[in-house]
Write a structure and sequence with these properties.
Strand order of the largest sheet: 1-2-3-4
Largest sheet: 4 strands, antiparallel
Helix content: 25-40%
Shape: globular
Radius of gyration: 16 Å
Order of helices and strands: EHHEEHEHEHEE
Strand content: 15-25%
Structural class: alpha+beta
Number of helices: 5
């Protein structure tokens, strides 16, 4: 439809905001655009994205809020994670929702090896406009406040666009694992293993 003629947001207009309970339509619209592809940073697993309904939205909101709350007791092997929405400065007038962004507060072995502190994805019609770069830049100070500093950001070995985004944000390559390139953003010394304080 009209989505493709959307003006490119000017630099510095991208912001990260908490999921907005008033914006069911924006959320549903964004989710449907990803179809069955992966939606990094949304907290949904590929192939397990629900059909967007008012009920799944309410569930999504309460789950994501709990995940980011340090007082929430988590299942074993999970870490707290703050979920945000990628929007531009027109958002107060209604959107659109441009994508999803997640900041994991600490690293399990799996996150340390191949997923990192940050996950994000931009909806298909809004890609190749520099939105991921802007979102990552906006997310780094938030990650720092949440204790995810220095920040580990990973991408698939063959994902040139992601690689450029991470390098642009100051990423320094720290080796690959299981087909993922790993980059630290922030001063050394970088953690040499998981940072999550797991029970035990």
């Amino acid at each position: 439809g009209m989505a493709l003629s959307r003006p490119v947001p000017a630099r510095g207009q991208i912001q990260l905001v908490p999921p907005d309970p008033e914006r069911f339509e924006s959320w549903a619209d964004c989710l449907l655009e990803f179809a069955s592809g992966p939606i990094d940073g949304s907290g949904f697993q590929t192939g397990r994205v629900p059909a967007p309904s008012r009920n799944t939205f309410a569930e999504y909101l309460s789950d994501r809020l709990k995940a980011g709350d340090a007082r929430t007791l988590l299942p074993e092997g999970r870490v707290h994670c703050t979920f945000l929405w990628i929007v531009d400065s027109t958002w107060p007038q209604g959107g659109p929702l441009l994508g999803f962004f997640a900041i994991r507060h600490a690293l399990t072995q799996f996150l340390f090896d191949q997923a990192g502190h940050i996950g994000y994805s931009v909806r298909p019609t809004a890609r190749r406009q520099g939105i991921a770069s802007e979102a990552l830049m906006a997310g780094l100070p938030i990650a720092q406040r949440l204790g995810a500093h220095p920040t580990l950001v990973c991408c698939l070995e063959e994902n040139e666009a992601s690689m450029r985004t991470i390098l642009h944000a100051g990423g320094q390559y720290a080796g690959s694992c299981n087909g993922f390139r790993r980059y630290w953003i922030g001063p050394e010394p970088w953690p040499s293993g998981p940072t999550a304080k797991l029970p035990g």
